[in-house]
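Priority: medium. Attachment 1 of 2:
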C-alpha cells in the first residue's frame, strides 16, 4: 500500500512538473448523484479537502460547486460542454465517453471510487428470473440503455436468451433516479415493479412486503466490480495540472479517512444526505460488507468494455483497463 501511494505521488509530481507554468482555473464543478456510494465526494464537499490541497499547491482560494444530478445523461452533457470538470459516473459511461472523445477533449478515468453490488429488486411474485419479465413489468434504472444497470440487464439478457438478444429487456426499463425509483416501486407508480438500485435504497426496499432481490451485478459479472468512477477530460487535466492534482490527492485522502472508521463515515453520510429512512446500522452494515469497498482501484471495467464492444455500443475497444484511465492509477492492480 505504501509503495502504491508513493507511485501515485510520483505520477502526480511528474504531471505538475512537466506542464509549463500558466494560469489555472479558480473554480471547479464536481457532479454527483445520490446514495452512499458517493460518500467520498460528499466528504470532499463538506470537509473542503480540495480547497485545502489547492491552497497547498499554490492555487490560493478556489471555489467548488457540487450539483446533484439524477442520472448520467445530464452529467455527461455537463462534462462534454465544459460546465463540469469532474463527475462521478458508472463504468459504462466512462467507457462510452472514452470512445467518443478520443482525439479531442479526451474523457478518461481519474480513478475508481466505489466497488459495490447493484441489486435488481422485484415485487412481482411471478418473476423468478430475468427471463420472466414481460411488457406488464417496468424496471427503474438511472438511465435507459446507457447506465450501469442498463448494461447489466443487457448482459443478463444475453446470458438467458442467447447472443443477439442483449436488448430484449430494454423495452421494460424506465429512467428514474434512485430516490424516485424507490418511491415508484413502493407505490407501483407507472407500473414500476422492479428497481435496479444500490445502497441504501436497496436495504430500504427490502423492508417493503413482497420485495426481494432477483439478481445482482456481481452475479451477472461473475465477481466484484467497480460501480462508480470519477472522470475528467484530458483537456482540463493538461491545462490545470495543479487543480487536477489537488482533486486527486483530496479524493485519496477522503477514501483513506472513510476506510479508517466506517462507523463514523456512516454517521456522516446520514447527516450530509439528510437521510431519515436509513439507520446508522443499515448504512454501516452496507459499507462494511466485504463486497463493498471505497477504493481507487478499477475492477472489471475492462470486462464491461469488452461486452460493450462486442454488442457495438462502442467502436473502439481498449486493449487494457489502463487505456481508459489517467496514468496516476496505472500502478494499481486493476482489471
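Attachment 2 of 2:
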Amino acid at each position: 500500500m505504501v509503495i502504491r501511494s508513493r507511485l501515485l505521488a510520483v505520477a502526480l509530481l511528474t504531471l505538475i512538473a512537466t506542464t509549463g507554468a500558466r494560469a489555472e482555473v479558480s473554480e471547479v464543478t464536481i457532479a454527483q448523484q445520490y446514495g452512499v456510494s458517493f460518500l467520498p465526494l460528499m466528504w470532499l464537499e463538506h470537509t473542503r479537502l480540495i480547497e485545502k490541497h489547492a491552497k497547498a499547491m499554490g492555487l490560493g482560494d478556489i471555489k467548488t460547486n457540487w450539483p446533484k444530478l439524477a442520472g448520467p445523461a445530464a452529467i455527461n452533457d455537463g462534462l462534454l460542454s465544459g460546465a463540469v470538470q469532474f463527475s462521478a459516473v458508472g463504468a459504462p459511461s466512462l467507457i462510452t465517453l472514452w470512445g467518443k472523445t478520443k482525439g479531442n477533449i479526451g474523457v478518461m478515468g481519474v480513478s475508481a471510487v466505489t466497488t459495490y453490488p447493484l441489486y435488481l429488486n422485484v415485487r412481482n411474485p411471478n418473476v423468478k428470473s430475468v427471463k420472466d419479465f414481460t411488457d406488464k413489468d417496468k424496471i427503474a434504472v438511472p438511465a435507459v440503455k446507457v447506465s450501469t444497470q442498463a448494461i447489466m440487464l443487457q448482459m443478463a439478457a444475453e446470458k438467458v436468451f442467447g447472443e443477439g438478444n442483449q436488448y430484449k429487456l430494454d423495452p421494460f426499463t424506465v429512467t428514474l433516479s434512485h430516490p424516485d425509483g424507490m418511491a415508484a416501486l413502493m407505490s407501483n407508480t407507472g407500473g414500476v415493479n422492479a428497481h435496479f438500485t444500490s445502497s441504501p435504497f436497496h436495504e430500504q426496499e427490502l423492508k417493503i412486503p413482497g420485495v426481494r432481490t432477483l439478481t445482482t451485478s456481481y452475479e451477472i459479472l461473475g465477481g466484484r466490480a467497480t460501480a462508480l468512477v470519477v472522470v475528467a477530460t484530458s483537456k482540463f487535466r493538461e491545462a490545470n495540472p495543479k487543480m487536477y492534482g489537488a482533486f486527486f490527492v483530496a479524493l485519496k485522502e477522503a477514501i483513506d479517512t472513510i476506510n479508517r472508521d466506517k462507523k463514523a463515515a456512516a454517521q456522516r453520510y446520514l447527516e450530509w444526505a439528510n437521510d431519515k429512512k436509513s439507520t446508522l446500522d443499515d448504512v454501516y452494515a452496507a459499507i462494511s460488507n466485504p463486497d463493498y469497498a471505497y477504493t481507487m482501484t478499477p475492477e472489471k471495467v475492462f470486462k464491461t468494455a469488452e461486452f460493450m464492444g462486442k454488442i457495438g455500443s462502442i467502436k473502439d475497444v481498449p486493449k487494457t483497463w489502463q487505456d481508459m484511465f489517467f496514468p496516476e492509477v496505472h500502478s494499481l492492480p486493476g482489471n
